[in-house]
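User: I'm writing a tutorial on reading structure tokens. Could you give me a worked example: one chain, its sequence, then its tokens, then a sentence or two explaining what the tokens reveal?
Assistant: Sure. Here is the example chain.
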Amino acid sequence: MDERQRAFLDDLLETATPSGFETAGQRVWVDYVSEFADTVRTDEYGNAIAVLEGGTPEVALAGHGDEIGFLVRDIGEDGTLKLTAVGGSDRTVSKGQHVQVHTDEGPVSGVIGQTAIHLRDREDTGVDDISEQSVDIGATDADEAESLVERGDPVTFRQTVADLENGRVAARGLDNRIGIWAAAEGLRRAAERDPDATVYAVSTVQEELGLQGAKMVGFDLAPDAVVATDVTHATDGPDAPGDAGSGVELGGGPVVSRGAANHPAVVDAVRAAADDADIEVQLAATGSRTGTDADAFYTSRGGVPSLNLGVPNRYMHTPVEVLDLADLERTADLLAAFATRAEDEFTVDL
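And here are its predicted structure tokens:
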């Protein structure tokens, strides 16, 4: 990953994009892809589509640009803010964290308070629901707080991108800014090879709220095939439950899902592209659903052949998600290889 590609990744990770409030992050993505795409467009809800014009087939490389977070639900008389979750926010990791409230006038800093261990009942090991947790912005009463924030303002953890050993990084929101990074980079790398196919790169919105952006894009775009890149659980970490083991390892390469939404012809095409490009991939079983935008794409219109391509990730939906940059690079290379060689009809032979 060169300096410019890493700067793009860092820009995405440092820009808050809670579901429903993705505009700032979508601008970062659009600015990047505009330099090599033939055209770029957005829709009414902010889904962004970059196009590399060609012939048939038409293939889409997609990721979702939103992240989990919170909204200001209410403002207490003491000036603290009450929260409601956006997406699958984890109540066990939010207390004691720095946050930012994103207002129309700019960010307001705060912390989600945690009662000091000296004052807590040592026998009470329960975790408050997010609705019971509060953000302290330093305001002394409701009037002061209401002059700074409004109900419905989005809230995200305030975290930096940290480089770990062995080419690994930790950040909030790797789920799924890495997917839109890979889609953009896959398009750029495909453009260098002048593919025969028409190639779309897509950054969807509101995936964390039920795959909503992918439903819109899948209906509007109707490509011949979609590869939706998202994080997937690396179960080689120290805290992964034994009964959740999948064999997916950090550093083992992108993960090709099989089952459910994953169209067998697209699975075969991506695996063949990986073989041709000498990219090592891992396999994962998704028996009922992938839990990603692929689930929405494949049921769009009359059915769009789709695949969930995963990037191994530890500690998902926490402020300290971890991935291996080599996995991300290989994912972008694989997307470009698939787009460049796409020439098949993605149908099931009966």
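What the tokens reveal: The helical segments are 3-14, 23-33, 142-146, 174-191, 212-221, 264-276, 294-297, 325-341. Residues 3-67+172-341 form a domain with the Aminopeptidase fold (CATH 3.40.630.10).
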